[in-house]
Input
Amino acid sequence: MADATELDARSIVTTRLIDAPRDLVFEAFTDPKHLSQWWGPDGFTTTTSRFEFRPGGVWRFVMHGPDGRDYENRVQFEEIVPPERIAIWHDDGKDNPEIRFHNTITLEDTGGKTQLTMRGVFATAQERERVAREKGAVEGGQQTVARLAAYVAQLARKKG
Output
């Protein structure tokens, strides 16, 4: 199931129809044991040092790149509406306003499958363009969502 990605002046929007129930897809966001199995682009691994899945809670983690580099990350959970929506602020953990964006993840039940939409909104069009160009955000988002889809499909088979 292919991803679709849209770009507008300040946003990157990635969508994917996932062959797993919405509750299971939502669950994959709720625990670092799940997140470590799929979060990040191909070749990346994730180590969590703090995880508070609640509005106002923080998730601190390091993404380990296939090139051996480590990338500090911080997510602050703004809104959680199980199993429909998660809204977060995502940055590099260093209060750098240039590396901060808002992401809303919506999960729509489509009769046993889940339509996932991730909408990342940046402060400016220039910042969105820089992150897309320098950080590979479009491809990275597509790969992350593909890894999520494969992971929850595996979970669904185990539960099935």
